Protein backbone atom coordinates (compact mmCIF):
# COMPACT_ATOMS: atom_id res chain seq x y z
CA UNK A 1 0.00 0.00 0.00
CA UNK A 2 2.83 2.41 0.83
CA UNK A 3 4.50 1.72 -2.52
CA UNK A 4 1.28 2.58 -4.37
CA UNK A 5 1.02 5.80 -2.39
CA UNK A 6 4.59 6.69 -3.36
CA UNK A 7 3.82 5.92 -7.01
CA UNK A 8 0.76 8.13 -6.85
CA UNK A 9 2.75 10.93 -5.23
CA UNK A 10 5.45 10.55 -7.89
CA UNK A 11 2.90 10.77 -10.71
CA UNK A 12 1.21 13.76 -9.10
CA UNK A 13 4.59 15.46 -8.80
CA UNK A 14 5.37 14.76 -12.47
CA UNK A 15 1.98 16.13 -13.52
CA UNK A 16 2.52 19.22 -11.42
CA UNK A 17 5.93 19.79 -12.99
CA UNK A 18 4.46 19.34 -16.48
CA UNK A 19 1.72 21.89 -15.78
CA UNK A 20 4.24 24.31 -14.31
CA UNK A 21 6.47 23.95 -17.34
CA UNK A 22 3.85 23.98 -20.13
CA UNK A 23 0.77 25.57 -18.54
CA UNK A 24 1.61 29.15 -19.43
CA UNK A 25 2.26 28.26 -23.06
CA UNK A 26 -1.01 26.34 -23.28
CA UNK A 27 -2.89 29.25 -21.69
CA UNK A 28 -1.47 31.77 -24.17
CA UNK A 29 -2.17 29.45 -27.10
CA UNK A 30 -5.75 28.92 -25.95
CA UNK A 31 -6.34 32.66 -25.65
CA UNK A 32 -4.81 33.27 -29.07
CA UNK A 33 -7.02 30.64 -30.71
CA UNK A 34 -10.17 32.06 -29.10
CA UNK A 35 -9.44 35.77 -29.25
CA UNK A 36 -12.57 36.40 -31.36
CA UNK A 37 -14.65 35.55 -28.27
CA UNK A 38 -12.82 37.91 -25.92
CA UNK A 39 -14.58 41.20 -25.29
CA UNK A 40 -12.52 44.34 -24.95
CA UNK A 41 -12.48 46.14 -22.58
CA UNK A 42 -13.14 43.49 -19.92
CA UNK A 43 -15.36 45.58 -17.66
CA UNK A 44 -18.20 44.76 -15.29
CA UNK A 45 -20.59 46.69 -17.53
CA UNK A 46 -19.63 44.59 -20.53
CA UNK A 47 -20.11 41.39 -18.52
CA UNK A 48 -23.55 42.54 -17.39
CA UNK A 49 -24.49 43.37 -20.99
CA UNK A 50 -23.37 39.94 -22.21
CA UNK A 51 -25.27 38.28 -19.39
CA UNK A 52 -28.45 40.11 -20.37
CA UNK A 53 -27.92 39.20 -24.04
CA UNK A 54 -27.56 35.52 -23.13
CA UNK A 55 -30.67 35.58 -20.96
CA UNK A 56 -32.84 37.24 -23.59
CA UNK A 57 -31.47 35.04 -26.36
CA UNK A 58 -32.43 31.97 -24.35
CA UNK A 59 -35.87 33.49 -23.75
CA UNK A 60 -36.29 34.09 -27.49
CA UNK A 61 -35.49 30.42 -28.20
CA UNK A 62 -38.42 29.13 -26.10
CA UNK A 63 -41.02 29.18 -28.93
CA UNK A 64 -38.78 27.09 -31.18
CA UNK A 65 -38.06 24.63 -28.39
CA UNK A 66 -41.76 24.42 -27.56
CA UNK A 67 -42.59 23.69 -31.19
CA UNK A 68 -39.97 20.92 -31.29
CA UNK A 69 -41.37 19.44 -28.08
CA UNK A 70 -44.90 19.29 -29.47
CA UNK A 71 -43.67 17.67 -32.70
CA UNK A 72 -41.86 15.01 -30.67
CA UNK A 73 -44.97 14.46 -28.56
CA UNK A 74 -47.11 14.04 -31.69
CA UNK A 75 -44.60 11.50 -32.99
CA UNK A 76 -44.82 9.52 -29.75
CA UNK A 77 -48.63 9.66 -29.91
CA UNK A 78 -48.53 8.25 -33.44
CA UNK A 79 -46.19 5.48 -32.31
CA UNK A 80 -48.55 4.65 -29.46
CA UNK A 81 -51.57 4.54 -31.81
CA UNK A 82 -49.68 2.18 -34.13
CA UNK A 83 -48.04 0.14 -31.38
CA UNK A 84 -49.34 -3.12 -32.82
CA UNK A 85 -47.13 -2.47 -35.87
CA UNK A 86 -44.07 -1.71 -33.74
CA UNK A 87 -40.98 -3.81 -34.33
CA UNK A 88 -39.16 -5.60 -31.53
CA UNK A 89 -36.11 -3.39 -32.14
CA UNK A 90 -38.14 -0.22 -31.61
CA UNK A 91 -39.66 -1.60 -28.42
CA UNK A 92 -36.19 -2.56 -27.18
CA UNK A 93 -34.85 0.93 -27.87
CA UNK A 94 -37.80 2.47 -26.02
CA UNK A 95 -37.25 0.12 -23.07
CA UNK A 96 -33.54 0.94 -22.93
CA UNK A 97 -34.33 4.65 -23.05
CA UNK A 98 -36.77 4.27 -20.16
CA UNK A 99 -34.21 2.28 -18.20
CA UNK A 100 -31.56 4.94 -18.83
CA UNK A 101 -33.92 7.69 -17.62
CA UNK A 102 -34.64 5.70 -14.48
CA UNK A 103 -30.91 5.11 -13.87
CA UNK A 104 -30.17 8.84 -14.24
CA UNK A 105 -33.01 9.56 -11.82
CA UNK A 106 -31.54 7.14 -9.28
CA UNK A 107 -28.06 8.58 -9.74
CA UNK A 108 -29.46 12.10 -9.25
CA UNK A 109 -31.18 11.04 -6.06
CA UNK A 110 -27.96 9.55 -4.72
CA UNK A 111 -25.99 12.68 -5.61
CA UNK A 112 -28.70 14.87 -4.07
CA UNK A 113 -28.37 13.01 -0.79
CA UNK A 114 -24.63 13.61 -0.73
CA UNK A 115 -23.64 10.19 -2.10
CA UNK A 116 -25.32 8.31 0.74
CA UNK A 117 -27.42 5.20 0.34
CA UNK A 118 -30.50 5.07 2.51
CA UNK A 119 -33.05 2.39 3.12
CA UNK A 120 -33.45 -0.85 4.99
CA UNK A 121 -30.32 -3.00 5.16
CA UNK A 122 -30.80 -6.25 7.11
TrEMBL record:
GO cellular component terms given for this protein:
mitochondrial membrane; proton-transporting ATP synthase complex
Q: Where, subcellularly, is it found?
A: Mitochondrion membrane
The UniProt keyword set, sorted, is: ATP synthesis, CF(0), Elongation factor, Hydrogen ion transport, Ion transport, Membrane, Mitochondrion, Protein biosynthesis, Transport
Q: Does the keyword Ribosomal protein apply?
A: no
Classify the source by domain of life.
Answer: Eukaryota
Q: Name one GO biological process term.
A: proton motive force-driven ATP synthesis
Does the entry feature the keyword Transport, yes or no? yes
Q: Which InterPro entries match?
A: ATP_synth_F0_gsu_mt
Which terms does the record give in the GO molecular function aspect?
Answer: proton transmembrane transporter activity; translation elongation factor activity
The UniProt entry's sequence similarity note says:
Belongs to the ATPase g subunit family.
Name used for this protein in its record: Elongation factor Ts like
State the species of origin.
Answer: Actinidia chinensis var. chinensis
